[in-house]
Amino acid sequence: MRKVTRYTLTLAIAMVGSLCLMQCSEPTPADAAGEETAMPVVPTLPGATVLAFGPDHVLFVGDSKSGTVHAIATEATELSEPVPFNFMDLDGKIGEALGLAPRDLIIHDLKVHPVSQEAYVAVQKGHEPGAPSVIAIVSPTSPDIRFLDPAQADHSEVTIANPPAADLTFWRDVPASTLTITDMDYYDGHLYVAGLTNGEFASTLRKIAYPFDGSQSSVGGIEIYHAIHLQQETRAPIRTMLIEELNGVPTLIASYTCTPLVTIPLADIEAGKKIVGTTIAELGYGNTPIDMIAYMTEGQDGSFNRMLLVTQKHRSGSLIPMQAGAEAAQ
Asked: Which pLDDT band, with edges at 50, 70 and 90, does 29 fall under?
């Protein structure tokens, strides 16, 4: 079972605050003559919307626009002890390093390196549909921003099969292609990729062997009970997820828009199989989950308990004892 330490929790909360500052930051830095500073040359990817770490510290980068998952090797020096990690004005610092105004950046995702405890941040340089992305690296021990160079590391990729049609939209104007990959997690030799497909059931889970060898399968559809809508649903994609052991069973815990919390045993995720998830909680109407992390916390009696934190766009974070989730999933 994986452990997420307190520094990760602090950084995740700080990240939510940083996203809220993106529209009210200062414009592009200018020199004394009023001219914009030159943009430095930074290694880019066509797109980067979802991040996840895998074996041997490989960084998986999901690009919804092109329907591609990259696997990029990372090197890191181990930080033996967690340190306080409150990095204020994250978008401002990254914008300064790129020579861009924070309002010209889109921060898509953030994951913490399991060894170095550095934050890897997926950043889109601009709002245009074809704007490239960079992976910024933020250290808990240094104020400097670095950038990952995929060309200088072992790098492989896989194309997502059967992505949603380019002309399909949701909620009138949201392209379905932006939801090709909504989240990813690695477990025991496979990368699990949530998102949409062009099949009969829009919402799907893809299971991709890693190292990439061309092996890729997807379920026949995911059906969940949406308590707010009082009905079974199949179209909505998983927005955020992680894999944990519940009752000794490897289980995918997923949260959807508006906001069911669902469990799916990994053993059920088979090619072509229709999945019926178990809804264990409802986190609120009109809400969208941002991310979730699991971590250990110490109680007043000295006991340790595993907790699930779900951060959300329109509500404060939901903190759920993992044991309660396990009991609800039975």
From this structure: very low
Provide φ and ψ at 323, rounded to 5°: -65, -35
250 cis-preceded (ω within 30 degrees of 0): no
190 three-state secondary structure: strand
What gap in Å lies between CA 124 and CA 48, rounded to an integer? Answer: 7
* Lowest pLDDT segment from 79-93, 117-131, 153-167, 316-330: 79-93
Tokens, residue 26:
């200062």
Predicted confidence (pLDDT) per residue in 276-313, tens digit: 999 999 998 889 999 999 999 988 888 999 999 999 99
Minimal CA–CA distance to 15: which of 111, 125, 139?
111
Long-range contacts of 136-145 (CB under 8 A, 24+ apart): 136/94, 136/97, 138/87, 138/90, 138/93, 140/7, 140/79, 140/83, 140/84, 140/85, 140/87, 141/79, 141/83, 143/93, 145/93, 145/94, 145/96, 145/97
Q: What is the pLDDT of residue 82?
A: 77
- The pair phi, psi for residue 8, each rounded to 5°, is -65, -40
Question: What tokens does 243 get?
Answer: 């894999």
Q: Closest Cα to residue 69, out of 56, 83, 86, 50?
A: 50
Look up residue 17 and give its two tokens.
Answer: 């605050």
Per the document, the length of the chain is 330
What single-letter amino acid sits at 271? A
β-bridge mates for residue 136, sequence order: 121, 147
User: Which burial class, exposed, middle or buried, applies to 11 when counting CB atoms under 10 A from its CB (0-12, 13-18, 19+)?
Assistant: buried
Count of beta carbons in the 10 Å neighbourhood of residue 35: 8
> Encoding tokens for residue 63?
């690009």
The pLDDT tens digits of the residues spanning 228-265 come to 888 888 778 899 999 999 999 999 999 998 899 999 99
